[in-house]
Amino acid sequence: MTATATLLPIDQATFPLFAGIDVGGTNIKIGLVDDAGHPVAFEKIHTHQQQGAEKAAQRSAEKLTEMVAGLGIEPDQVARAGLATPGPMDLAAGKVLQPGNLPGWHFSPVRDLFSQATGLPVTFANDANAAAFGEFWSGAGAEVRNMVLVTLGTGVGGGIIIDGRLLVGAHGAGGEIGHIVIDCRDDATLNSLNLRGTLEGYCGAYGVLARARKALEVQGVRSSLSDLTDDALTPLEIAKAAEAGDHLAMSIILETAKLLAIGMASIIHTVDPESVVIGGAMTFGGDGHPLGERFLEEIRLQTTERIFESLRGEIHMDFARLGGDAGFIGAAGLAREEHLG
Amino acid sequence: MTATATLLPIDQATFPLFAGIDVGGTNIKIGLVDDAGHPVAFEKIHTHQQQGAEKAAQRSAEKLTEMVAGLGIEPDQVARAGLATPGPMDLAAGKVLQPGNLPGWHFSPVRDLFSQATGLPVTFANDANAAAFGEFWSGAGAEVRNMVLVTLGTGVGGGIIIDGRLLVGAHGAGGEIGHIVIDCRDDATLNSLNLRGTLEGYCGAYGVLARARKALEVQGVRSSLSDLTDDALTPLEIAKAAEAGDHLAMSIILETAKLLAIGMASIIHTVDPESVVIGGAMTFGGDGHPLGERFLEEIRLQTTERIFESLRGEIHMDFARLGGDAGFIGAAGLAREEHLG
């Protein structure tokens, strides 16, 4: 999930450029992306979130100015900026609300702050939605018009593209895929927002670990994971154990795939995409790794069983391609959409 | 669910008009709808499905010609027709596939047949999607831009409107709400398509009856429904028993509301509508009836518990308003969308 994009030489870029700014709790990723979706410059600065949003906007603007100068282009060749932050947010008002990893930014009018600092009009988006748009614009969804991105990590998030447009929703809650419900039981697992039976509650990192712990409690079960303390049990340790042949670890990973597929079936029967793209930090090795490929294959298999016969084989399911670059590229892409009107 | 629309006098209509044709297994509903969504004429003819689609197209066209003459208008004041049929269908090819209630129509090129018979360009749509568009255009969703219709009957169906446009999906399977999964258990109920744990499997008529039968089997349970034979147990009998104070019958209805709410939470976190509209034949009396209102109130309550705090109170949940007219009105509305381009 590191930045992997190759930068396009500026003399091959299509103008205008768009700035993409992807704010996380630790870093802010800043890129310049050309009109065809190719990054031409990329930098990462510390968020220093406790200093607040205004300072971060100023430092981001300074970095952007340096990047423009470094490319030897004029500032007015950058048409607009896209700003992605974690939710919750008030999109219409251009404000973040109370994102858990940005306490110093709570209720900041980030759209205006970044616009004033950069001198650019700013398009504001949810970071998971921006990542979805990035994959759609120049990643795993570049060949389709209808795509769903599902990101697996501490949380489960994502975004939905319908007929080439991001599904923002009436209240900015479109594509909140982690909060679809897969377990109707009254005693189903609660997630971090106290919502019961959600996809995130089972397939987010804490959900995976909770299922692993429960499986380890079964009397007589043999697993190398039994030797780990509660703190040492992580998705990465589960992946390592599975790769070393531990049956319980593998069964937890395959169960994760099955539970995810149950959520996928609901999304597919709701928005009917051409392509479902799986990203995030918890893909068990991801693309090109045997365990990641086995995980993806199980998602495909289990999803296929749960959807209309006429859809089987019709929906691509693949790993994301842009890794941690998806957010800033997508933010730039959403800025471009608004620029084009 | 009968036709309830008041017809607008033709001298108050806004032109052009659009024809809406809603094909069911028993009847074909044919209406003329003005440019503002008001029906100005309506007729119902028998489908006689065993005679095939071509004959039905001819009889529909004859009826339309009569209706136009009866209104005293010129044929060219009708700009386009919308044709809604049950799925599954190949929308792009303009064909029905194998709808269960139209065996005589299997694989018929209905779009072309109706176009040739009526002399009008034809917009082809799934009947549940057409009904959703009808409610959006001139029913319970007329004040919003983002709406979900859920229809409860033998099956559970619906349609989704995003930013004023019908979500058709990449393969015509958008808004197949009955097939979202609410129960991840390996032994969850199978529905008629052999899909496990779906909303339809629990909240479609057969699902409701299966839950009632199971509840009646519990030893010592007292219910007036116990006296009914298996054949005599229907959603209507459950409603009657609940109205007469039968606790088990009421608990089945409230459980239906809860399971439906679980599906609603998934849809809301996926497409984030302004309004969710509940229609279909199985609304336990529906709008204005005490039991229907209790059912709706329980859906609201249970949905609210399962969605983001920021969305609570922000999403309208109401009964559909157009009853059985939604399909032909929506088909006409979709024809109008295509006419406007």
TrEMBL record, chains A, B:
It comes from the Bacteria. Pfam families: ROK (PF00480). Coiled coil: none annotated. Gene3D superfamilies: 3.30.420.40. Belongs to the ROK (NagC/XylR) family. PANTHER family: BIFUNCTIONAL UDP-N-ACETYLGLUCOSAMINE 2-EPIMERASE_N-ACETYLMANNOSAMINE KINASE, ROK (REPRESSOR, ORF, KINASE) FAMILY. This is ROK family protein. It comes from Aeoliella straminimaris. The lineage of its organism: Bacteria, Pseudomonadati, Planctomycetota, Planctomycetia, Pirellulales.
